[in-house]
Amino acid sequence: MSRDNYFDYYEKMAHWSFDEYDCHEECLTDWDLYKILRSLATKESRILDLGTAGGEKVLSEFPECAEILGTDYSPHMIETARANLTKSGRKNISFRVMDNLKMDVPDEHFDIIVARHTCTDAAQIYRALKPGGYLLIRGVDKYDCWELKLAAGYGQGFDDPVPVSVIDFESILAAGFADAEMVPIHTREYYRDRETFRGFLGAVPILDHLPEGSILEGYIARNTFAGRIRLIRRYYGITARK
């Protein structure tokens, strides 16, 4: 999916919630972005959240601190985030539109920068972090939902010669970060029925479009356990220090 298509997609999804799909998740990897974030943050911390979407994770998972700025490429997503902020009553949080690849934030201003499932420019992030500041990334890897992508013959990152996780990590090292570490994150998601599973796949960019019925039904038959449909997800987590 091109960058312009991603923009259109997230503009349309501004009021969408993952909770609509009644998904039970089992994480098989002991790497939790929000636990790491809370362990690093202090009351004086300034945190930047890139790709904040509707701000739900900022409002529910980020610690209380001096400043949190959430940014997103989609104006509609930021409208949603601001509405959610008003309902939450939380303080010291703001949201605004910003392109991650054209970051217009002050130099050496943030103690922690978080990027979740979004594109990044490691050199610009390095510039925006204070000396000793931390970068935390959680991203979707090429091999996410790999059995389903193989069955369909296409999907997000399917034809990438190098997984985006490797590209991100090498860019972070090239930008000058120290103490960088990358961890593969494996999870299992379980959906309650075919309709819920198909609805989820139709709403997210894992596949450009749903595959033919026999392909999807074959996957469902192989991955149904106790009446629920399993989807194996593969993410990656990166921690790095300036």
Describe this protein's structure.
This protein is of the alpha/beta class and 242 residues long. It has one domain: 3-Layer(aba) Sandwich (Rossmann fold). 35% of the residues lie in helices and 29% in strands. It contains nine helices and nine strands. Strands 1, 2, 3, 4, 5, 6, 7, 8 and 9 form a nine-stranded mixed beta sheet that branches. A hairpin with a 2-residue loop joins β8 and β9. The longest helix has 14 residues. The radius of gyration is 18 Å and the shape is globular.
Summarize the structure.
By secondary structure, the chain is of the alpha/beta class.
What is the SS-derived class? alpha/beta
Estimate the helix proportion, in percent: 25-40%
* Average pLDDT metric: 92
Instruction: Give me the Rg, rounded.
Output: 18 Å
Query: How many domains, as an integer?
Result: 1
Runs with pLDDT <50, length 5+? 1-5
- What oligomeric assembly is this protein in? single chain
Biggest pleated sheet: 9 strands, mixed
Shape: globular
CATH architecture: 3-Layer(aba) Sandwich
**What is the number of beta strands?**
9
| Euclidean distance between termini CA atoms | 32 Å
Number of helical segments?
Answer: 9
